[in-house]
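Why do we bother with a discrete structure alphabet at all? Because it lets us treat a fold like text: something you can write down, compare, and reason about line by line. To make this less abstract, here is a complete entry for Class II glutamine amidotransferase. Read it the way you would read a sentence in a foreign language you are learning: slowly, and without expecting to understand everything at once.
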Amino acid sequence: MCRWLAYSGTPVLLEQLIYRPQHSLIDQSLHSRLGVETTNGDGFGVGWYADSETGPSVFRDVGPAWNNRNLRELSRNLRSRMFFAHIRASTGTAVQETNCHPFRHGRWLWMHNGAVVDFHRFRRELVLRIDPSLFNAVEGTTDSEVLFFLALTLGLEEDPPGAVERMVGLVETIGRANGVENPVQMTVATGDGEMLWGFRYSSEHRSRSLFYSTDVDTLRALYPDNPVLAMVSEETRLIVSEPLGDLPGAWNEVPESSYGIVGPGRDELCPFRPQAAPRAA
């Protein structure tokens, strides 16, 4: 499986998110505590938004994150209000740049931890449900990218939670028709540069780990002398596969079958309920 983090809030250097914390994403690439694999070295990627006028940029590589000199150099100088960062442990597809997360389409970024169980058994049926206008934008061979383009097909840009619920409903319907009873295992982050959504769900209701950071006002009350908390706004939030440190009260587990919304003036935690699969055109 994989590890990831998504950040929204006061513009910060990438280095502060993926290198400096006690149990940073770089540390997790070698010493994951909660992942299926301890080591996540099958490529990595970061995505970020430079300003409100342009879409996101991405930097991805097939090597491990822990010794990538370009990532280290970039992280010291790259500042953004929204970051996606992902370290990959392949579930069977090739280690190649087009299979590294995050995936991008227009203003949207997407990254995933988990798997579509026995993806090879019904991959063709899923791919054929991607809207023809989006089909040629699929570059890699992962289940994760197929999930993204199915969500786009089903309305991600207009209704992100509803689109992901419809996407999961579709995958479960097709998977079960092919003899896979519990096909979906996922934690997903997606965003458009303004809002960020994080999802935790699995068909068997035993999802991979996912956490969100406690609100900044509460943390300031708990740790008034912490210099990092003095630098960021009240709306700053992180969603992570596993906590970046052991600070008591700083991290909260996302409940099973839930999704969160993070953005200016909005912070919500809602139940996630897959919707019936739409009929094929």
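What the structure line is telling us, in plain words: The mean pLDDT is 95. The CA atoms of residues 213 and 251 lie 5 Å apart.
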